[in-house]
């Protein structure tokens, strides 16, 4: 896993919610130029993190809307997650051979508050992926992984998914090398169990 995505229509409100649950103050990340969003981060270990993403009021909404359906959100929630394969292109080829459409590969960048620019390649985070239960794929190229500049105050214990078509979704996750448990649920959803200064917390 690369990171979890917790989206909020209001970034400050989403950060306050995470701080109240975990007892950790999210660290400002930066703005996603052209996407109308900005983020803050909480470490989940050396190579994983929780991203809190919300609307950047200093940017207009892009054509087609912001990532992760933020424009339609009424409350903060865990909307999806990201997988970091050894080779994004090979993993994408395997997914396409199995009939999984993860969307086109895009290039992205953002500048941290310390001025360091991060660059990446990513399969389209806005593509339809079983309601966010299937991950999007990340490649950080030559950038330092964002988790390495954060205090390791939390860790991910488990990630659990629910979906109305649990069996087929579970098979698709195995194609991606992401064999997380999937149970039946009336709507797609994710539950992350996080070890934090406030104990074990379930984030949905």
Mean pLDDT score: 92
Number of strands: 12
Q: Which percent bin holds the helix content? A: 10-25%
Could you spell the SSE succession in H and E letters? Answer: EHEEEEHEEEEHEEE
Q: Helix tally?
A: 3
Largest sheet: 8 strands, mixed
Low-confidence stretches: none
The count of domains is 1
> Given the helix and strand composition, which structural class is it?
alpha+beta
The Cα radius of gyration reads 16 Å
CATH class: Alpha Beta
| CATH fold title | 2,3-Dihydroxybiphenyl 1,2-Dioxygenase, domain 1
Defining key terms:
204 residues; alpha+beta; 2,3-Dihydroxybiphenyl 1,2-Dioxygenase, domain 1; four-stranded mixed beta sheet; 3 helices; 12 strands; globular
Provide a descriptive summary of the structure in words.
The protein is an alpha+beta fold. The chain has a single domain, classed as 2,3-Dihydroxybiphenyl 1,2-Dioxygenase, domain 1, CATH 3.10.180. The protein is 16% helix and 37% strand. Strands 2-3-4-1-5-8-7-6 form an eight-stranded mixed beta sheet. The model has no long low-confidence stretch (mean pLDDT 92).
Q: What's the short story on this structure?
A:
The chain has helices spanning 11-22, 88-97, 166-175, and strands at residues 3-8, 27-32, 37-43, 49-55, 77-83, 105-111, 117-123, 136-139, 155-163, 182-184, 189-196, 199-203.
Topology:
Blueprint: E1 3-8, H1 11-22, E2 27-32, E3 37-43, E4 49-55, E5 77-83, H2 88-97, E6 105-111, E7 117-123, E8 136-139, E9 155-163, H3 166-175, E10 182-184, E11 189-196, E12 199-203
Parallel strand pairs: 1-4, 5-8, 9-10
Antiparallel strand pairs: 1-5, 2-3, 3-4, 6-7, 7-8, 9-11, 11-12
């Amino acid at each position: 896993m690369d990171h979890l995505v917790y989206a909020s229509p209001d970034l400050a409100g989403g950060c306050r919610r995470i701080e109240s649950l975990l007892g950790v103050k999210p660290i400002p990340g930066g703005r996603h130029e052209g996407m109308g969003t900005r983020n803050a981060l909480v470490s989940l270990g050396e190579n994983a993190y929780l991203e809190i993403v919300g609307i950047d009021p200093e940017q207009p909404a892009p054509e087609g809307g912001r990532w992760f359906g933020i424009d339609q959100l009424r409350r903060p929630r865990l909307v999806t997650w990201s997988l970091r394969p050894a080779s994004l292109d090979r993993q994408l080829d395997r997914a396409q051979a199995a009939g999984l459409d993860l969307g086109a590969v895009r290039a992205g960048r953002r500048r941290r508050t310390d001025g360091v620019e991060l660059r990446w390649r990513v399969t389209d985070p806005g593509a339809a992926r079983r309601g966010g239960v299937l991950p999007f794929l990340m490649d950080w190229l030559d950038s330092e992984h964002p988790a390495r500049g954060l205090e390791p105050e939390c860790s991910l214990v488990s990630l659990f998914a629910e979906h109305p078509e649990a069996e087929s979704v579970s098979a698709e996750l195995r194609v991606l090398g992401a064999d997380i448990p999937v149970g039946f649920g009336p709507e797609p959803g994710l539950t992350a169990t996080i070890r934090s200064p406030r104990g074990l917390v379930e984030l949905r």
